[in-house]
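Journal club side-thread
Mid-discussion, someone asked how the predicted structure for our own chain would compare to the paper's figures. Pasting it here so we can look after the session.
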Amino acid sequence: MQKNTISLDDLDFAILSCLQKDGRESFTVMADKLNVSVGTIRTRVNKLIEDGTVNIIGRVNPDKVGFRSYAHIAIYVRPATLKEQVVTKILTLPEVSFLAGTSGDYDLEVDVMCRDNDHLVSFINTISGIEGIYQTNTTIYFKVYKYAQPDLDLLQD
């Protein structure tokens, strides 16, 4: 297991929690909530951005903008020595929202967001042509009930 080399304290976690709820919340409002100075918030947020702990982005609701087909794809790679080459190619595909190496029956797990089922079929045909992909197993998500960031409170004692 990889050890986190960045040391975060309670204030950092509190700031991250505020940003998860509202990435546009002002430093003044955060400072008032957390009983610290605006300068402290500014310094801490800038540090968190610089070290890559947080990125401030606009999070789009995929369904609201026209993505109607979500799927989970299990990928089997043969020979196993091509796994990193397959990963490199899949990472370039814009439909991919999640990609991980796995243990167990298959080698890679991919989540994708597509416009519709025709787009999904086209995507599956594309990845099936990548050298090293031996087999895929696709599960379509009919409805996403929760799409969230990790709950930082789970890291507290």
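Post-session note: The chain has two domains: 10-50, 68-141.
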